[in-house]
Design a protein that fits this description.
By secondary structure, the chain is an alpha/beta fold. 39% of the residues lie in helices and 21% in strands. It has a single domain, classed as Rossmann fold, CATH 3.40.50.
């Protein structure tokens, strides 16, 4: 069983990080993946948030099962085109509400298995959604990607100073582990009215952009709160496809296009 080739067949690997929970990291991960898929690319989403695996619901694959082949685990595909592949601990639980009560070593072993044993096939992008923080799981992901030329990390924050402060620690983590930073996304930046499309600042604004400027890294964009996006996530629909004309969808598509252009042109950004 040549497990070494499972990641080698993936052209680009992007890690989605945030130092704080509740900033919409999984939302950004899924929408970037769906937008890249919409551009005609083959994409995989690896959910390594072992204690809070929300990716399967967001992509409407909660009822799917994974299968074992001679080369490893076969990921779940939401549709027959097989242009989007998904892997999550949720597919291995007996019931979707079962908690994952594991100590660090068992979590790390599972992440290593996800990185080596999943038969992704020829993918253009693998989007890796991580839990909040800078703990064992993140170190395991970064170490597991060494030798496979990961493109880098996208950091997700909300505008408030408390969230930006946690993401600042995440930037330090990236530098210490030599993981390139592709850019910062400021999520929940304003609220889009579903009736008139006017954007109002519910929270403060500009924290993510200021952070990117402070560390001299790319700022990828501000994604406002959008009730239509929340509804799509609840129903497992593709927001960037169903509401392509909305301001939030256009911003998410632009973020995905920017990442694709930069990674395709430069290989990685430091």
């Amino acid at each position: 069983m040549d497990l070494d080739n499972n990641l080698k067949s993936v052209k680009h690997k992007i890690v989605i990080l945030s130092g704080k929970g509740g900033v919409g990291k999984s939302t950004v991960a899924t929408q970037i993946a769906l937008s890249l898929k919409q551009q005609g690319l083959k994409v995989g989403v690896l959910d390594v948030d072992l204690c809070g695996p929300s990716i399967p619901r967001m992509l409407n694959v909660e009822d799917k099962d994974i299968h074992q082949s001679s080369q490893g685990w076969v990921p779940v595909y939401p549709d027959p085109s097989q242009t989007l592949a998904v892997m999550s601990i949720a597919f291995l639980l007996n019931k979707k509400d079962d908690p994952v009560v594991w100590r660090g070593p068992k979590k790390n072993a599972m992440i290593k298995q996800f990185l080596s044993d999943v038969v992704w096939g020829d993918l253009d992008y693998l989007i890796i959604d991580t839990p909040p923080g800078t703990s064992d799981e993140h170190i395991t992901v970064v170490e597991g990607l060494q030798g496979y030329n990961p493109d880098g990390a996208v950091l997700v924050t909300t505008p408030q100073a408390v969230a930006v402060g946690d993401v600042r620690r995440e930037l330090t983590f990236c530098r210490k582990t030599k993981l390139p930073v592709l850019g910062v996304v400021e999520n929940m930046s304003g609220f889009v009215c579903p009736h008139c499309a006017e954007c109002s600042n519910v929270f403060s604004k500009g924290g993510g952009e200021a952070l990117a400027r402070e560390f001299n890294i790319p700022f990828l964009g501000c994604v406002p709160l959008d009730p239509q996006l929340s509804q799509c996530l609840e129903n497992g629909q593709s927001f960037v496809e169903a509401f392509s004309s909305s301001p939030s969808a256009q911003i998410l598509n632009k973020i995905a296009e920017t990442l694709h252009q930069r990674t395709a042109m430069n290989g990685s950004i430091s």
